[in-house]
Specification:
Elements (H helix, E strand, L loop, with lengths): L25 E4 L2 E7 L5 E9 L2 E5 L6 H11 L10 E5 L5 H4 L2 H8 L2 E4 L1 H13 L6 H9 L4 H5 L16 E2 L5 E4 L2 E8 L6 E6 L4 E5 L21 H15 L5 E4 L8 H25 L8 H5 L7 H20 L3 E5 L5 E5 L11
Parallel strand pairs: 4-5, 5-6, 6-7, 11-12
Antiparallel strand pairs: 1-2, 2-3, 3-4, 8-9, 9-10, 10-11, 13-14
This protein binds zinc ion.
């Protein structure tokens, strides 16, 4: 079952198209195992196990549900790829359930530590605590303001499912800090936009970047305004974070992302991700020149479709549409006004009358 490829000191390699099966690990670089955990969508999330003394440090760990638990049990069994050694530490790149859903279980199982940035830990704890509860009035009004109808609003649920209760204490990691894992120093690089304080880990000596959801090879991460901070401008944060990564991390690293395969060509991928956002912003500018729009009216312009597979995906699309709109409002290119129903309408600033309300 085990696919342990590289011998110690073997050069880094990129095993094109050879993703490890569930419950199996692939040694992508000496002492660094690539594992995948199943998600309810049928997709997977990567968990990276880094050899750390007599045990492991695991970076991201999948959602908490039966299939993922079953995979972890296989990985951790004495005959499994982690050799039955303990997980001493879980590093969560950010708050989302596919990244830290199993952190509580893993830490409890091995008396391990959870390491995260502060705002990611606090937000993840809050989300988990609210799981199964009701949407608040202010959360519902956020989506109503974006143009959702009553039926869609009635289907909304708080996030935080698939997350085991997090440990009630954690170790804070900060931007620029060096984290020693095994014999290697990893620099914490904090980005923002997909979440508020997302940690990437960069090892200059080995030319490796654990990029979490900050840089993905074949999909672009969701960048959303959320009801908890309705005035945020995460698109600006996102673009600034991509620029930061280009400044700090050289192009020739091997990128170990949270979804899909490891890849090389970081700077080219960063440029693609930036281009995609700027093209969408250009389309949005054109659309606002033609007519005033609510966030929900921008779906086709931004995403090429009006309907989504689930309320959750529609939630992501709405948050991202608002993120694009706020970016233009903050730059003075668009203005927003609320109608008598409390719905936000965005307009090209050049066509706006004096006195339009701020967001
Ligand atoms: Zn995420």
């Amino acid at each position: 079952m085990e696919e342990r490829a590289a011998a110690p000191d073997a050069p880094l390699h990129f095993p094109c198209g050879v993703a490890p099966a569930l419950g199996v690990a692939l040694e992508i670089a000496p002492g660094i195992l690539w594992q995948r955990l199943p998600l309810p969508s049928g997709q997977t999330v990567n968990a990276w196990a880094l050899r750390d003394g007599d045990g492991w440090t695991v970076v991201d760990c999948g959602m908490s549900n039966e299939p993922a638990l079953e995979v972890w049990r296989r990985l951790l069994s004495p005959a499994g790829p982690l050799e039955g050694r303990p997980v001493r530490r879980v590093i969560g790149t950010h708050l989302h359930a596919d990244h830290v859903g199993m952190a509580g279980w893993l830490c409890a199982e091995f008396d391990g530590e959870l390491w995260m940035t502060r705002s990611e830990y606090l937000q993840a704890s809050l989300l988990q605590a609210r799981s199964g509860g009701l949407m608040s009035a202010s959360e519902l009004s956020f989506y109503a303001r974006a143009g959702w109808d009553a039926a869609a609003l009635g289907a909304l649920q708080p996030m935080g499912r698939h997350m085991a209760p997090l440990p009630t204490r954690y170790r804070r990691i900060r931007d620029g800090e060096c984290v020693r894992i095994g014999d290697d120093d990893w620099q914490v690089l904090v980005g923002s936009g997909h979440s508020t304080e997302h940690a990437c880990l960069y090892c200059p000596a080995r030319g490796l970047l654990l990029s979490g959801d900050q840089v993905l090879p074949s999909i672009s991460s969701n960048v959303s305004v959320w009801p908890s901070e309705p005035g945020a401008n995460p698109m600006q944060d996102w673009l600034a974070s991509l620029a930061m990564l280009r400044r700090v991390v050289p192009d020739d690293v091997l990128v170990l992302p949270a979804h899909h395969d490891p890849f090389r060509g970081l700077h080219g991928r960063l440029a693609q991700l930036e281009r995609k956002r700027h093209r969408a912003l250009d389309r949005l500018r054109d659309a606002l020149e033609q007519a005033d729009r609510r966030a929900v009216d921008c779906f086709e312009t931004l995403f090429g479709r009006k309907e989504f597979a689930s309320v959750f995906v529609q939630q992501l699309a709405t948050g991202e549409a608002v993120a694009y709109l706020h970016y233009l409002v903050d730059r003075g290119e668009a203005v927003v006004h609320e109608d008598v129903h409390g719905i936000a309408w965005y307009r090209d600033a050049a066509q706006a009358l004096p006195g339009s309300a701020e967001r």
